[in-house]
Every structure is written in C-alpha cells, then in structure tokens.
Task: inverse folding
C-alpha cells in the first residue's frame, strides 16, 4: 500500500520546461498537448514584492478527485495500491466530462486516440526509475515518493514546512502535489490559475436533474403499479368481466 | 465477364524470359528473422555527449534495434548527471527531421535561388580541394576564410591552419564571450573557462551582473547555482535592469541604469579598499599594482554612484559590507555574453579586480584553476608563418579575427572562398545585409551544416554533417572543473543518409590537399583510441565505464603549496595591466558614460530563451510547441501611458528606420521604463524552416548600430534604440523619472502548518541539501 | 358528450357474446411478432449492461449491488461496454433492414396508424386517467387496432429509437467532437428513460392487468378472441368483420418502367465500381463455378489447363463475381416477394414452338453465347455495361453489334413467336 | 507462373536516378501498361528534380518521402517496426528512418517474394497506401518535369489494382484445393 505524491519547490524551479519535453519524449503526446505544464507568471507585483515564478503543474492525483465521479462509466479511478488516478482505456468513450471536472485542467482528449490522456506519475516506470520529469529536472525542484512512508525523502521535504497545496476554501479536492517556496509565489499562482470547480452542462443536468427524476420516476411507477395491482386483486375482478 | 487475358498479363508473361537485369535488389536493407523474434527486445543504454547547445552535457541514448527511443542524462557525468534540459530531451527530433541535409549538394542555379543536385562525397571533396589549391596558388592560402562555431568545427580549423590560412572567425569570440576571456587573460593570464570556473557550492555571497541564469540554461551551471542559492542559502546579489528569473531568487535586486555597471563595480572596489575590507595578505602575495588601483578609484563614492547608477547608496554600501564579510568565499560571476555597450572588456576586468582584492581567486567559493593533461592524438600542426593579423588591429590590440573583419576583407577582394561550418552567419552577425553583399563577391562558398539554414541558400557546395547522435568527435577534456574529466561522444545510432562525421570530411580533404602531416589517422576511432591510450584506456573500456574518465584536479591555491605563479607578465594578478599600458589603453578600468536613449526612445535589449539555442532549434517540433514566438517586455507604467495593453501586437522601429516584424507585448513592472527586452533567435528569415519561418520577431535586423570594443573589437549590440509602432502610428516612450532603488528580499516567515492543507505538518529539522 | 360515444356500440345479446368469445381473428403479422420479441431481448440486455455501465456516484441510478452483480457476471467492465456496443450495433442493423425491406408492407401502415391520433384515442386516455387516478366509473370510446395508450407508447418508441441509435454510435465510435459526445450521453439516457417509462406501463398492462391478458397471447401466436377485439378494439373488430381491415387489396404494383429500371441499374453499376472497384459481370460467375466443379474431380488437369488454370488459383469461387452471381439470384427472389409476380415454374416460349424445341434452342444459344463471351472477354453485362460505362471501345462496339444482331435475329425468327 | 517483383522496380525508380535505374523505366511502362507520352528528361535535370522533390529544397522539402510527415499517428516508428518484426523482418542498415519510402517498398517486395499476401495486403491498406496517396498529391503539385508525377501516379494506381487482386484472393496464400 502506498500513496505516491510529489513536491515541487518553486524557489528552485527556473521555468526551463525540461520536464515538459522529457514527458513528451517518454509518452509521445501529440503536438501541442502536454501532460505536465510550466506556465510563466509575472514578473508581477504581489503586495509589496515582485514575483516571477512558473506554475509547474500536472495531475495532482487528489485524495477525492472530482474527475472520478464525473466519469459516467468510471473509466478513471484512483488505484488503491499506489494512490495514482489511472484510466481504463476500454471504458473511456472520450466524452470529456472528467476534462471539465478537473479543477487543475490536467486532462485533455487526445485527438489521435480520441480518448482522455493525463499524467499517471509514469505508472509503467514505477518502481524502476523516477518519473521522466523528476529525473530530468535540472534543479531537482521535483521530488517524487510515497507520502505514507514517513521517512521517505518526500515526507521529510514536506515536513520542512512552507509547503502549500494549490487549493482554495471552496475547491480543495485534497491534491497530493505539494508546492514549496515563497508564499507570494503560491498566491500569484492561485490568483492567475485558481482551481475552479466547473462541470459540463450535460453532466450537471444529468446529476442534478435527471438522476433524481429517474429514481423518483422509477420509484413512483413501481409503487403505482404495486398499488394498482393490489387494488385490482381486492376488487376480485374476474377476467373479461364487462360492465356495460 | 471474368478476368480476360488483358494486355498487361500478356506482357508480364513475355517479360519472364528477360529476367531481372539491372535491378538493385536492396537486399542489404532487411534481415530475415523467425516471425515475431526480429532483433533484440532489450533497450541498450549508450553514453554520449549532447550538442543541442555547446555545453556538452553527458547523455544516455536509449536505443532498440539501432533506433533511438529516448535521450536521458548520463548519471556518470560529474557535472549534469541524470539532468538534461528541454533541448537535450528533444534531440531525437533533430535526428529524425525530414528537412535535414542528407547528401552533398551542388548548386547548379544562382546564388540565393539554389538549384541543387545531389553529388557523391568523392566529387564534392574533389571540387573543394581543387578550388582551395587553385586559390592558394593564385592569391595565397589566406584567400580562404572560415566562419565556424561549435565543437565539430575544431578539426576543420586545424586543417586550415595547417593549410596555411588563419582567417578563421569563431562567432563566439566577437559576439559573445570574447571580451570576457580577454579581460581575464589580461588580469589572471587565463580565460574564465567554459563551464565558468566558479566554486559556487562553497560561496557565501555571489554577485551576478547581467547574466540571466535559468532563462539562459547551461544545465550544470544552473544546477549548481540553484543548489548554492536555495540549498546552501548563499546570499545572491543580482544587478539587472530587468527582473529576471534569477533576480526573483536573489537577496538583492539592483535595477541598475543600463550602461553604468562599471561605475557600480568600481564604487564597490573603492568602498572595500577604503574600509579595508579587502584580503590584505592575499593582495600582498598575489596582486600587482594595488596602490595604483587605490589611487585610481578613490573618487568613486557611493553618493556619486547613486546618481549615476540610480541604485540607493545604502544598498551599495550594504552589498560592499556583505562581500567584505563573506570573503574569500565570494563568487564574482564572470558572465558569458558580455558584448553590451562598447566598453565591455574594462567592465569585466573591473569584476576580475573586485574578485582579486577580496582574495576570491584560487580559493574555495571563488574562482579556481583548470587542470589540463596532455593527450596524444593525430596531430595537425599549425603552419602559420608569423602573426601578421589580417585585420587592422592597430586600434584593437587584442583582437582575434572576427566575422566583421572577414566581411571587410571579402568586400575588398582579399578573400575568395568561405567555408561556413555549423554557423548561421546571417542570423548571428549584426547587419546581415552586409554579410550577403560580401558573399555575393565570393568566388566559391562551402557550407557544412546539419540543416539547410540561410547560409546554405548562397552556398555552391553544401555538405551534410552527421548530428551529434551519429558521430564520434575529438575527446572533450573538461579541465574547467574541480573534478576534471574526459568524456567521449560516440554515435548512438548509425549515421542517417550520407551524413558524415567531421573527421571524415577533414581527413579526406587533407588527403586531397596533399597535407601529409595533417590527421594521418584513418578513422576517428583510431584517433580516440590513440588519445585514450595516453591515459591507459581505450574506447571499449571507457564505454563500459559510462563514457567518462575522471582524473585528479588541482583547482585551488593550497593544492600548489601556496607559491602559485600566475601566467601574467608580472607572475601576479595584474590589477594594473602591463599589456594594456604597453598598448596605451587604460591599465585600470575607468567608467565611461554610455549614450542614453534620446527622448521618446527606449533601449533594445535581448537575451536567451530557456528552450532554444538561438535560431538552431527553431525548427524542432517539440521545442517550437513550448515557445513558438518571442514577446517584448515593456514597463507597466510606460505601457499604460502609451495606451498599450498586454498581448497586443506592435512593431518596433530603430534609430536607423528599420521596422521589425510584429511582436507580442508583455506588460510587466519587472523592467525599467527606458528599456525593452526580447528573446533572441526567433522570426527566422529562412523559409527552409517549416515551423520557424516568420514566427516571432527577427530582432537581429533591428541591430544596425554596433560599437567595437576598443580592446578586442567585440561587437556591442545593446546600443540600438527603438520606438513602438501600433497600427502604423509611432508612439514615443514617456520619460519616467526613476528614483534610486534597490530591493532587498524580506525573510520568509517560518510557517509550520501548511496554509490550506488539511494535514498537520511535523517540525523543521536541519536538512542536508542534496547535491 | 361521453354518452353518445356509447351509442356507436352495437348492443350484443349474451348469446352473441359467448359465440364471439369462441371465434378467433388474426391481429399481428409474423414479422411483427418476431421483431417485437427480438426488441424485447435487445432491450433487456442493453438496459442491464447500460445501467451497469454507469456506476459513478454522480450519475448512478441503479442500486450498487446490481452493478456489482453485472460486473461480476461480465468479468472485466471492459466486457460490459463491448457487449453493450455489440448488441446495439446488431439491433441497429436489424431495425434498419426491417425498415428498408418491410417499408411497404409493415412499417408504413403501422406508422400511419400510430401517428393517426383521433378524438377517440384522446378520449380513451382521459377516461383511463379518470378511472385509475380518480376511481370513477367510465366508459371507453371505441378504439382501433392499437388503443390510445399503445399508440402513445408506440409514438415515443418510434421517435426515440433513431435518437438512441445515433447517439449510441457517436459514443461508441467517438464520432465528431468530444463536445458532441458529452451531449450524446445524456440524450441517449433521456431517450432510453422515456421509452422505459412507457415500457413499464406496457409491461404492467401485458403481464399484470387481467383484461389485457389476451393481448399478450395475441403477440405470441398472433390471434385474439373476437370478443376481446369487440370489447377492446371495437373499430378494428368492425373493420375486420366488414372485411375492411385487409389493406383493401393493395393496388397491384405496376412493374417499374424500363427507363427507371435502367437508371437504377446505372446507379448499381456506379456503386459497384465505387465500392468494389469492378463493374458488374455474370459470365465469370458461370465460368468459375464450372472450373470449381471440374477442379473438384480433376484438379491437376484443370490447374495445368492453359485457359482454366488461369482461374484456378486456390479458391476459384473466392471471387467477387461469384458472390455477385449468388447476390443476383437472391435479389431476384426477394424482388418477387415485393412485386406481385407469383412464384411458379414455367417455360416462357413463343406460341408456335413446343417446350422441347424451346429448350433445345436455348441450349444451342447458350453454347454460342458461352463461346462468344469467352472470346470477347465478357458477357453482355460486363462488356456492354461495365465496358461501356468506362468508355472502353470494345464495350461500345459490342453494344452496337448486340443491337444489330438482335434486330437481325428478330427478323429471321419472328415466325416462331406469332 | 513465375512472378515479376514490381515492387523492386518501383523502389529503383523512386531512388536517386542514374543510368542503371533509368534503364528500368521501359520495364516500368510495361508493368503499368501505359507508355509515358513525354520524353524522358536528361539525367542531370532528373537529378535536380529528384533533389528538389525528395532531398533538400528551397523553400522547404515539398514531398519528403517519409510516412511520418503525412500520417499523424503518435509513435509511427514503433508501429512500423513491430509490423516488420511480426512477419520476421528487422531493419539491417539504419541508413534511413524506418518510415522511408524505399524501405517500405523493399519490405513489400520481400513479402511479395515470400508470397505472404495477407501481410502485403494488410500493410498496403493499413499503412502504405494512405500516406502514399498524400505523397503522390504533393509530388504532382510540385513536379515541374512531370516525370516523377507520372511514375508516382501510375505506381499508386497499380498498387490499388494490386490491392484488389489481393482482395480477390486470385493469388491467395493458403494452397488448398477447393
């Protein structure tokens, strides 16, 4: 049992985007699509401090990921052994509910395979070597490891303090990618790329309108027919009786 | 209907008798295996060296059945280890690029509009050799010039020196680090080194003037720099009119007025001497001309400096105190691209002097010394008689041959033939129109490259060079390192098409030129085995050990038992430069004011993008997707008053009326109002490059005014001023009075509990920073 | 207003009632029955697998144990979606074939009836509502072969089935854009939901509501008692009684005019080229069948035979022409059913000659034509049609001389026919 | 009936032109059963035209003879190489990337010699023809002499017919008496 996570030290990161290319080389994502991204922010004035940082992001493999319930066929699920959110490509029909539901925008529909694609912490490489982005990060800003095992390097890094998660009061799906660095940088990121809960209209209709209606409807018809049946039995109506 | 005996069938049958005469059966292409088990399944790890830029990081090629899958860092390499940057990761796209040069091409059309015919290597080399011998006979060997860049051009340069011409320009001399190395030669007798010889990891304080580490990615340097600043908490002072990425990580950011850096450095030197914060014992033992220096700089006071550099005097004093306290573990970073405003060699000398008086030379945390060892190899002796510099060096005593002076020589018919080796001379040298004019006067032009860039448009013969993933190269001895080592580039995959490695080109050419004594080795492997035999190993053994041979280094003074003799005329660090005084130049750097942008204009500055090596990687699909075009940094206040919004497209007009391509605006408070900044290497003019053509702004066209450095003739380019043109209307830059400033980073409050994370977090133990 | 409806009922004496109960009349065609039960099976599997697919907490509408059960039955969840898609595709194909081939005889009349909602149907619905909800005693207006409720349900199904198929295909094969797939899911869900609502009433009526019991058996063997028809489907009964129900002898289908037939043949030829890359042809079919038969007995000699060897290859019958041949035969049979030609064995001949003469001449003609086609490299359909359509000179020459030969022949042999 | 390996002749004609390869052009005309109306340009013009179309050109290579330029599949090289391996072939000389036009024609000729029609048909349908058609279109757009557009167009038609022949099973693979 393990829960893999990552720590990204924004103070160390220089925004050189090596992680993006290493990931693309490893998983051959199509042209302008990346599983991990580096979005430069600034230089911009935050309170009385100048900030020039980059939002290094990917799938946060959240504890209660909003993308999992958003997927109708449950193609995406949080793997219990490793805590990594994976996708079962047989079940994925490429509808993109999960793409909208992800507060960090970590998913995209691959135009070639027409199915969803996301970072899976280099799941096939797990165990042998670190994910491609962690290995190539020239300033070792990215650290990957098992959060549950207390004396792993990543747990020590987190316990050093000054560690934040990109989450707000309203939207906090429990991400497992932690960010270290100056508070102003985290604020700049949250200001520019706030995690927002946004569901697609059809998904909302389905979960808020249709689902209760169906359950209600099914219940009603069941009870209705039951009542009608009982009503009919105690009537003792004979078969083919004709009143006229 | 059924299938009638069609005419085709009839003919087919009749041909049977004729048999398959004259058909090449390509049987060499495929190999038969039992189905499903063709070739090896496992992935080989082949160590080699990257060349996406010239930093030469160690890489591992993951190869399966002779085809490259992925590139990763080589953990055995002491510098970058398993780390490689964005360009290193995308090397595979250069290897399998369909637009690559594939065969030797002969231009049978006009210059500029080439009509190419593929010819064999034999024929191409014969033609080149023929021409070279002809020109040597008629006009002398020096009528052949070479413009080159990158490690693969070293054998060609050696050949030409053996052939008799030294008209060889190395783009990086006059465009990039030429004056930095000359300044260090004059002061310490040796250049600053590449990688720069700075012991960052042990430094307590680092001074960084103008270098944008992080946006300019040299992997091992950035890795050690960040480890020093973030890991070891060294104090970092960044002096840059723009809030660069590294400025964001520094303790002090000094938005200095462009062109006044020398004033700041000399003020620091003066303050440190007056308050004898300098390392007295070191100065007495190892420096020369301290008194003359003390006398020279005595009126550079912080008050004076505040007016000139617009940096608060308190900050200047605080910095001087900081460096005084932390000496000798102080790194005064030499920088790399240093041709800025015109008097740049003196500025770098001032830096060297500041480091010397703080005793940060040959000491932990400061500069250290290179350790070279002798390697045998196939010699190609230099047969240049005498040193009559071909360029008029009366004005510039320490000038090596530069692109500028080759252009001049060609224009007045002294040069008949150019060999352009791996350098996009139209993209990297200012005033490209002049370069094209010179080319059109040439009789013969040869271009050796891996991609058809602009120069190949004008070439008579184009030779395809193998990319770094397909060739051997001369052994690279990384002497500028505390843990010096020798690393070997070997082909990760077999060369594609008919591209050849540089040694093949040069050794074949030397045979045809009848140069018996130049590169007698048959192949590069023999050369390497010969070289490696002098350190008791050979290619096979080295590859098994991961392609890196490490040897003992002597980086610091105490490695020499304290009596180290600097290779300068006086045997000491020359604060007062004897060579300069001989050539009646200022022996001690002086501050000379630089022309300010006139009212309504702003200074155009440029720098590197982390994902591109200038224009070389423009056509790389992956890198292009990361950073397709450059944008123009402009000060928030200035933009507001000019009515410009972030993300708008505007054009620039420079003082000579040249108008640029459209460029996207990046409005930010992180740059001075009298200056704009952009990334170099975009907006390629060569239509060859499918992706990069006309993407972003080709800012080299705007750089028409250049000033040559008085000492070594380097081209200073940050002296061009621009105006903004929006929808045809010219908009002037406002004059915003800049109060003296200087920012100090506030210490971060120690927060135990994570701000918004539900988990409570444990205490804070001292953490041993990972190297 | 409701009382006058009653007058329309012919009062029945109890004896007539008993007598009617014994007699039986036909309600449903065989095809309709087959289609109904096929639909039932498909809907059963699709509902089960479809419901089991949606297990995410936002959308699940069936109890967890059910989805768990289905997943266990199918092993991996991947199998569920594969079955769902497979059954869906089969269902779509069957429906499309039914619509194409059963249009004139089955689909069009039923659709006309379903969508032909009359006052009585509405009246029926209103009174049904009053009876069930308000418990009033009501009399129902006379109904046609499908009563108001059944018509309503049939309309819903007729409208929703194409929607379900289209959205299903979009989802299964990721057609067009993800945005469209997003909407396709809930439209699919809504459409199925509507049909299921109707279905629940439909099933309740058929299984649990005693008076409608006979209707269920009507769908099994196609017959219902006359009394049931009188009581529940009065208009249908009366029509049946007066013999009005038969589609009044569908107007005899005129044979297709030769011009139209020619155009259709051209279209077939075009699509034959477009789809298979080859034109039409029949002599090859005959040729290959012969070669196959001979080959069965003397493979070696056929293989080395200079001419037949060419066709031998491995599978002489494995050729599109053979399939085209069989296709033509089956096609004509099918066309027979659609048209009003009846299936009888007969020898068409001129008046003057006897059957035997007709057969002998046919054999001689066949031999001549056989040789001719082989030499010309194709029979009428291949040379004239396929050849002609690609403007091969041989094709046009063949066509011209075909007509010339035809007229000459007619001139000489006209005596036989008069 | 002995078969003539037309794939090899196509590979020769689509490779860099020289006297030996051009001598095969008559044979090519017989194979595709059409006579080339224009007269064959001199060798030098052909070499320039070939370099301009398939090697290096100004402004950029109009018709690169590589499948990856025309197909936007993700890891095309893996797919091609696994297909080669599935029928027992591995690339020996890595002078070209695995998706090079001549390599694929040679692979087809190997299948043709092995009479592995099933694989030949699958390779033609699933990989070769889809990109070859786009390649031919690019050649026709940019070829001035018309020689290479003639060759490419006729090869394209011939291969499509070949595909139909394979579909017929006229020369099918399993040798089974019916």
Result:
């Amino acid at each position: 049992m393990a829960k893999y996570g990552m720590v990204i030290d924004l103070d160390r990161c220089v925004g050189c985007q090596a992680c993006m290319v290493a990931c693309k080389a490893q998983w051959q994502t199509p042209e302008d699509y990346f599983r991990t991204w580096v979005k430069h922010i600034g230089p911009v004035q935050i309170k009385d401090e100048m900030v020039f940082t980059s939002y290094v992001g990917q799938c946060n493999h959240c504890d209660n990921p909003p993308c999992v319930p958003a997927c109708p066929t449950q193609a995406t699920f949080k793997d219990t052994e490793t805590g990594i959110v994976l996708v079962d490509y047989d079940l994925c029909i490429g509808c993109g509910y999960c793409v909208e539901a992800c507060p960090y925008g970590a998913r995209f529909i691959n135009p070639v395979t027409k199915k969803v694609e996301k970072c899976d912490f280099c799941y096939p490489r797990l165990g042998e070597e670190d994910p491609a982005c962690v290995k190539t990060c020239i300033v070792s800003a990215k650290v990957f490891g098992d959060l549950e095992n207390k004396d792993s390097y990543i747990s020590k890094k987190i316990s050093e303090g000054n560690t934040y998660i990109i989450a707000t009061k309203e939207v906090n799906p429990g991400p497992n990618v932690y960010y270290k660095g100056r508070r102003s940088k985290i604020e700049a990121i949250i200001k520019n790329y706030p995690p927002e809960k946004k569901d697609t209209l059809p998904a909302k209709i389905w979960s808020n309108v249709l689902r209760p209606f169906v359950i209600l409807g099914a219940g009603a018809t069941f009870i209705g027919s039951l009542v009608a049946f009982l009503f009919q039995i105690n009537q003792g109506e004979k078969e083919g009786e004709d009143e006229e | 209907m059924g299938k009638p005996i069609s005419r085709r069938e009839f003919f087919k049958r009749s041909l049977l008798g004729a048999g398959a005469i004259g058909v090449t059966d390509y049987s060499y292409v495929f190999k038969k295996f039992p189905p499903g088990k063709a070739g090896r399944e496992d992935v080989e790890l082949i160590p080699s060296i990257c060349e996406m830029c010239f930093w030469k990081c160690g890489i591992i090629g993951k190869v399966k059945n002779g085809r490259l899958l992925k590139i990763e860092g080589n953990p055995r390499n002491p510098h970058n280890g398993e780390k490689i940057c964005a360009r290193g990761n995308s090397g595979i796209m250069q290897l399998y690029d369909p637009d690559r040069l594939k065969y030797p091409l002969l231009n049978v059309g006009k210059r500029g509009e080439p009509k190419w015919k593929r010819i064999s290597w034999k024929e191409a080399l014969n033609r080149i050799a023929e021409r070279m011998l002809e020109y040597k006979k008629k006009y002398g060997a020096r009528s052949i010039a070479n413009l080159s860049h990158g490690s693969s051009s070293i054998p060609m340069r050696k050949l030409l020196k053996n052939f008799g011409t030294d008209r060889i320009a190395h783009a990086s001399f006059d465009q990039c680090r030429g004056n930095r190395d000359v300044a260090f030669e004059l002061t310490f007798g040796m250049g600053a080194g590449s990688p720069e010889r700075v012991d960052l990891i042990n430094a307590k304080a680092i001074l960084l003037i103008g270098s944008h580490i992080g946006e300019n990615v040299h992997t091992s340097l950035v890795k050690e720099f960040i480890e020093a600043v973030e890991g070891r908490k060294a104090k970092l002072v960044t002096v840059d009119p723009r809030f660069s990425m590294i400025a964001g990580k520094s303790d002090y950011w000094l938005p200095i007025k462009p062109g006044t850096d020398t004033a700041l450095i000399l003020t620091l030197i003066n303050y440190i001497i007056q308050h004898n914060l300098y390392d007295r014992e070191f100065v007495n033992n190892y420096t020369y001309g301290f008194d003359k220096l003390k006398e020279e700089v005595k009126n550079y006071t912080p008050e004076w400096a505040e007016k000139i550099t617009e940096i608060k005097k308190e900050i200047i004093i605080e910095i001087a105190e900081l460096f005084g306290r932390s000496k000798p573990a102080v790194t005064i970073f030499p920088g790399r691209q240093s041709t800025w405003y015109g008097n740049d060699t003196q500025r770098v000398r001032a830096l060297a002097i500041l480091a010397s008086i703080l005793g940060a030379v040959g000491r932990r945390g400061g500069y250290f010394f290179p350790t070279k060892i002798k390697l045998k190899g196939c010699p190609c002796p230099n047969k240049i008689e005498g040193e009559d510099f071909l360029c008029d060096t009366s004005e510039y005593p320490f000038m090596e041959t530069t692109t500028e002076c080759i252009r001049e020589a060609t224009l007045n018919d002294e040069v008949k033939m150019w060999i352009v080796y791996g350098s996009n001379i139209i993209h990297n040298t200012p005033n490209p129109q002049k370069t094209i004019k010179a080319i059109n006067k040439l009789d013969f032009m040869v271009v050796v490259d891996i991609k058809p860039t602009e120069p190949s448009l004008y070439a008579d013969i184009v030779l395809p060079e193998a990319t770094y993933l397909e060739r051997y190269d001369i052994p690279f001895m990384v002497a500028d390192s505390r843990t010096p080592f020798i690393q070997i580039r070997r082909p990760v995959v077999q060369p594609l098409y008919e591209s050849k490695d540089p040694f093949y080109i040069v050794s074949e050419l030397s045979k045809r030129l009848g140069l018996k004594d130049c590169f007698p080795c048959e192949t590069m492997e023999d050369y390497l085995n010969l070289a490696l035999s002098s350190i008791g190993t050979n290619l096979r053994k080295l590859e098994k050990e991961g392609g890196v041979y490490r040897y003992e280094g002597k980086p610091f003074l105490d490695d020499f038992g304290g009596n180290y003799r600097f290779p300068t005329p006086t045997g000491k660090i020359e604060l007062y430069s004897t060579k300069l005084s001989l050539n009646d130049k200022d022996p001690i750097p002086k501050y000379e004011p630089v022309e300010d942008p006139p009212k309504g204009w702003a200074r155009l500055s440029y720098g590197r993008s982390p994902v591109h090596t200038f224009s070389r990687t423009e056509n790389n699909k992956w890198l292009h997707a990361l950073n397709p075009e450059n944008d123009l940094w402009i000060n928030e206040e200035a933009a507001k008053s000019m009515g410009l919004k972030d993300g708008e497209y505007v054009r620039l007009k420079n003082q000579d009326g040249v108008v640029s391509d459209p460029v996207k605006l990046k409005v930010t408070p992180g740059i001075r109002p009298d200056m704009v900044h952009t990334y170099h290497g975009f907006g390629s003019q060569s239509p060859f490059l499918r992706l990069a053509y006309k993407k972003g702004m080709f800012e080299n066209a705007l750089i028409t005014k250049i000033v040559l450095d008085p000492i070594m003739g380097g081209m200073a380019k940050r002296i061009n001023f621009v105006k903004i043109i929006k929808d045809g209307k010219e908009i002037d830059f406002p004059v915003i009075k800049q109060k003296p400033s200087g920012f100090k980073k506030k210490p971060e409050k120690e927060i135990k509990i994570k701000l918004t994370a539900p988990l409570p977090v444990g205490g804070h133990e001292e953490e041993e920073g990972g190297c | 207003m409701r009382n006058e409806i009653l007058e329309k009922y012919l009062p029945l004496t109890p004896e007539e009632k008993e007598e009617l109960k014994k007699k039986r009349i036909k309600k449903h065609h065989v095809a309709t029955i087959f289609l109904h039960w096929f639909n039932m099976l498909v809907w059963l599997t699709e509902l089960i697998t479809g419901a089991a697919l949606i297990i995410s907490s936002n959308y699940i509408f069936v109890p967890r144990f059910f989805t768990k059960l289905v997943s266990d039955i199918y092993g991996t969840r991947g199998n569920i979606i594969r079955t769902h898609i497979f059954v869906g595709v089969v269902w779509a194909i069957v429906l499309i074939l039914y619509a194409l081939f059963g249009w004139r005889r089955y689909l069009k009349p039923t659709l006309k009836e379903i969508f032909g909602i009359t006052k009585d149907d509405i009246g029926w619905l209103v009174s049904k509502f009053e009876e069930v909800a308000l418990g009033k005693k009501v009399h129902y207006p006379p109904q046609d072969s499908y009563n108001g409720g059944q018509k309503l349900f049939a309309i819903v199904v007729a409208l929703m089935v194409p929607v379900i198929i289209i959205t299903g295909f979009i989802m299964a094969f990721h057609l067009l854009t993800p945005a469209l797939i997003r909407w396709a899911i809930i439209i699919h869900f809504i459409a199925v939901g509507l049909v299921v609502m109707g279905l629940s009433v439909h099933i309740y009526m058929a299984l649990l509501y005693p008076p409608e019991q006979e209707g269920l058996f009507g769908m099994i063997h196609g017959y219902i008692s006359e009394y049931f028809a009188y009581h529940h489907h009065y208009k249908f009964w009366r029509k049946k009684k007066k013999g009005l129900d038969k589609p009044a002898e569908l107007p005899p289908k005129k044979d297709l005019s030769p011009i139209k037939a020619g155009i259709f043949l051209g279209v077939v030829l075009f699509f034959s080229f477009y789809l298979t890359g080859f034109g039409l042809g029949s002599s090859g079919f005959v040729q290959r069948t012969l070669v196959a038969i001979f080959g069965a007995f003397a493979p070696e000699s056929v293989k080395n035979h200079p001419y037949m060897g060419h066709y031998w290859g491995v599978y002489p019958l494995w050729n599109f022409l053979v399939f085209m041949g069989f296709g033509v035969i089956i096609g004509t049979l099918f066309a027979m059913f659609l048209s009003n030609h009846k299936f009888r064995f007969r020898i068409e001949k001129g008046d003057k000659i006897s059957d035997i003469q007709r057969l002998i001449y046919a054999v001689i003609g066949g031999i001549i034509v056989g040789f001719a086609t082989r030499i010309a490299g194709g029979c009428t359909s291949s040379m004239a049609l396929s050849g002609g359509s690609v403007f091969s000179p041989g094709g046009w020459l063949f066509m011209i001389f075909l007509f010339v030969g035809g007229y000459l022949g007619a001139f000489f042999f006209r005596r036989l026919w008069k | 009936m002995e078969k003539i390996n037309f794939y090899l002749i196509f590979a020769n004609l689509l490779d860099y032109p020289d006297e030996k390869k051009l001598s095969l052009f008559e044979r090519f005309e017989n194979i595709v059963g059409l006579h080339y109306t224009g007269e064959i340009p001199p060798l030098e013009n052909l070499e320039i035209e070939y370099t301009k179309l398939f090697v290096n050109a100004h402004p950029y290579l109009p018709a690169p003879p590589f499948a990856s330029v025309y197909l936007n599949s993700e890891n095309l090289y893996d797919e091609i190489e696994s297909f080669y391996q599935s029928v027992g072939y591995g690339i020996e000389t890595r002078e070209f990337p695995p998706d090079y036009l001549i390599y694929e024609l040679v692979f087809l000729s190997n299948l043709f010699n092995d009479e592995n029609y099933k694989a030949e048909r699958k390779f033609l349908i699933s990989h070769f023809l889809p990109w070859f058609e786009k390649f031919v279109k690019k050649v026709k757009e940019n070829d001035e002499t018309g020689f290479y557009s003639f060759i490419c167009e006729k090869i394209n038609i011939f291969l499509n017919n070949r595909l139909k022949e394979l579909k017929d099973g006229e020369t099918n693979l399993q040798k089974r008496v019916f």
About this structure: The interface with chain C takes residues 160-161, 164, 167-178 of chain D (CB under 8 Å).
